[in-house]
Amino acid sequence: MRRGVLIFLIINITIIAFLVHSVWTLLSLLVVDGSADAISRAELPAPGSNLIDGRPQLIPKIIHQTYINTSIPERWQGPQKTCIDLHTPQDGWEYKLWTDAMSRDFIAAEYPWFLKTFDGYEFPIQRADAIRYFVLAHFGGIYIDLDDGCNRSLEPLLSYPAWVHRTIPTGISNDAMGCVPQHPFFMHVMDSLPRYDRKWILPYITVMATTGPLFLSVMWRHWSSDGLNVGDAQVRVLFPDEYFNHPWSFFTHHLGNSWHGDDARFIFWMAKHWMFLTFAGFLAAGVVFAALWYAYGRFVLGMSWKGQVTRRRLPFWRKANNIDYELVQRHEV
Questions:
Q1: What is the DSSP pairing of strand 141-144 with strand 172-179?
Q2: Rounded-to-integer distance, Cα 29 and Cα 23, Å
Q3: pTM here?
């Protein structure tokens, strides 16, 4: 009986350990906030400060944005204009709007090994996600989503070899980021895209995990945990206060998420009610554990125990060795 219980516990612990190992990177994102690599407000010059001109500028003065074509929806024309107006050719800035056709032509010409994956993406937003990593790694510069406007000049952010934007409650986003050409992290991101190309049950999860912020967060976490986030390969992190919501923040945020569907709204509902779902999850796990224990006891331990009882009740059998039983004379019983 005790041996059976031990086997049952070992099996369950093994299963739990496997499941935890499978999602360990995602779990670690809940506690690793990137504060060690944060771009602190103390090191950022205020808007209009003379200190801006004295900082080294590593990232090229290029702003990248993406859209289906050149006809930008009216709700995003305002944010787009703020970034263009604050970063003019007279100040050395270049603006690149990558349409779907331009993006495919670029991949076909410069990275033909990725074209099959690029064309095979089920959702257009996956191609919009992927192209931003490639153009940043190729040209360098700053990528900005069209639903992000510029609140001030981005020149202070040119002083870091690479930076990304921290999101709440976990991970990083790909809506605003910058790097020098051929930065090792973004080269690694490019190289990893085909390996993460798979279909999940929900479209939202498919997009997030193959090319979107979840994918980028996993790449960032591995980059740090593997000890690569050092020196010129370091990726600095822009936290929410520096990102938006303050007069000295770099960006403004506007209505976006044009690709979100009902599955995304369901996941947002889950995030909003995470405490209830956590309790329900533990309750369901307890029920499953109890059911497994009952089935194990009923059909495994029960059969073993019945076998032992049956042998004890057979008076005409005796143990001949450690394994076998032999028939004995009735008078010996």
A1: antiparallel
A2: 10
A3: 0.75
Closest CA to 157 of 77, 83, 255, 76: 83
DSSP state of 273: T
Chain-centroid distance of CA 22 in Å reads 13
8 Å CB contact between 55 and 258: no
Pick the residue with more confidence: 21 or 277? 277
Element of type H or E holding 26: helix 24-29
* Residue 48 burial (10 A CB sphere; 0-12, 13-18, 19+): exposed
Residue 121, φ and ψ in degrees, nearest 5:
-60, 135
Q: How far apart are CA 197 and CA 210, in angstroms?
A: 5
Token look-up 């931003």 returns 132
pLDDT at 124 over 60: yes
pLDDT in tens, 69-107: 999 999 999 999 999 999 999 999 999 999 999 999 999
Q: Give the integer Cα–Cα distance in Å for 68 and 99.
A: 5
